[in-house]
Amino acid sequence: MSGSKPELYEPAIETMSREEIQTLQLKRLRWQMKRCCENSAFYQEKFNKAGVRPEDVRSISDIMKFPVVTKQELREEQEKYPPYGRHTVSPPEDWREIHPTTGTTGAQVYNIWSEQDVNNITHWTARTLWNFGVRPGDIIQNAFSYGLWVAGMSSHYAARELGCLVIPTSATPADRQIDYLTGNHATVLLATPSFALYLGERLSEKGVAPESLALRIGCFGGEPGASVASTRKKIESSLGIEAFDYYGLAEIGPTCASECPEKAGIHWVEDHVLVELVNPQTMEWCQPDEAGVLVLTHLTKEATPMIRYWTNDVARLDTEKCVCGRTHARSPGGILGRADDMVVYRGAKFYPTQVEKVLRSFKELADEYRIELSTDEKRSTTVCTIVAECLGGDVDQDQLKERVRTALREELQVAPAIRFLEFGTLERTTFKAKRIEDRRKSNQVSGYNEPV
After folding, report:
1. Looking at the domain assignment, is residue 328 inside a domain?
2. Which end of the chain has less neighbouring CB within 10 Å, N or C?
3. In CATH, what number is assigned to the domain containing residue 359?
4. Is 194 found in the same domain as 101?
5. Which residue range is the domain that position 401 belongs to?
């Protein structure tokens, strides 16, 4: 679809010049900094400790003078000042919704939406859906969770704003999802990449041809994968659709960046969120084409705004105008991985998405995989084993292992051990798949850490 010029949802906003975008961001950033300092003891203390004030923001780059906020810091704040901490800014009478994080890696963090927050998040999420081709009259099967992971709720609101029919299937089991797909003629699917692949597996096992479905597009988030070429290809072929990448997180969006038909990176909603890319060693902005950690700041959030939130997600940033006509910054390749998921093995550094890229290029392997880290007791060194499922049939597994090891060596610059399991052994999930199993005694994966 390269060279196409899709209709934009908000042309005046989405085609602003870089200078116009930054002028709007600076105005909103100053407003946000002022209200956070005046109404939040949490931010008052952080700013005072760092020796900075809202009036220090004279340009966008001045944001680097301010300290980052980490999830652990928010957990500790809410534990010390229950239940919501002191980083709430708007008064309680303005609050309308409370959305906790999943708590999969620690205590939940509560995120609060005011009435205006609900409206803003709904509106910008509608824009992200429009980006990849959702239009009025589409039937959206929303398999994003409606529970603790709030992407289901925001995309539901947005689909209604766009004039779509929504089927809120959420975490319904795969076979029931297929019943809804076939019975209700859904045209759009929203899900995690892992669940999309599982749906493709079940369709094949049930003898349902992808072309018999009404589906035409799908957008997949919650974990890296949809931007990995081999994964995207599998999703598209198994479901008979065009697949797009989606990104968000409960503390910020939860859906704040999506691909356009050019598939040249996820477009950010820069009029609502200030996006920085930070080198975790120097804490300075990354150079062009350099990967770093995403640090996000709310420009319009009222209830619980985040100032320089350390996402721990690794990406790149491109501020050049996209072929689609949109000028808001993009992250080519989507999210490259979690900073704390970076594996260091025999001097090489890699992310699970790189392993995924290799494994899903082999037709003999199923879609699920794990990266197993253990300790060689004799040598006191780390052992890295890639665990994958073999689809069976007349396959020489020893020869296949060598082919996979060779491909991994080319991609990772190191050759981990390979172990094959029978198809169906690894757990399938409607939520985020766990890719790393750390069985080492030290229980550490070397990589970037959140800043102290």
Report:
1. yes
2. C
3. 3.30.300.30
4. yes
5. 342-438
Please tell me the distance from the alpha carbon of residue 304 to that of residue 297, in angstroms, as a whole number: 11
Residues whose CB is less than 8 angstroms from the CB of residue 388 and which lie 6 or more positions away in sequence, other chains included: 359, 365, 366, 368, 369, 404, 418, 419, 420, 421
pLDDT per residue over 277-301, tens digit each? 999 989 999 998 899 999 999 999 9
Q: What is the spatial distance between Cα 135 and Cα 140, in angstroms, rounded to a whole number?
A: 10
329 plus 202 within the same structural domain: yes
* 256, 246 Cβ separation under 8 angstroms: no
- Render the burial of 194-227: b for 16+ CB within 10 Å, e for the rest: bbbbbbbbbbeeeeeeeeebebebbbbbbbbbbb
Whole-angstrom distance, CA of residue 408 vs CA of residue 402: 10
Q: Could you report the per-residue pLDDT of 139-180, keeping only the tens digit for each?
A: 999 999 887 668 889 999 999 999 999 999 998 899 999 999
Domain boundary among 339, 366, 383: 339
Same structural domain, 348 and 335: no
Cα separation values, 301 from 95, 98, 271, 382, Å: 12, 14, 11, 44
What are the helix (H) ranges across 67-225? Answer: 71-80, 115-131, 151-161, 174-184, 193-205
E strands, 242-397, in order: 242-247, 257-259, 266-268, 273-278, 292-298, 309-315, 330-331, 337-338, 343-345, 348-350, 365-376, 381-390
Read off the pLDDT of residues 112-141 as tens digits, 9 standing for 90 and up: 999 999 999 999 999 999 999 999 999 999
Angle between helices 41-50 and 18-39 (to 10 degrees): 110
Q: Are residues 334 and 346 in the same domain?
A: no
Residues 11 and 82 in one domain: yes
pLDDT < 70 regions, the chain: 1-6, 103-106, 148-149, 430-432, 441-452
Long-range contacts of 103-108 (CB under 8 A, 24+ apart): 103/148, 104/432, 106/71, 106/72, 106/75, 107/75, 107/78, 107/79, 108/148
Query: Looking at the structure, do residues 6 and 111 belong to the same domain, yes or no?
Result: yes
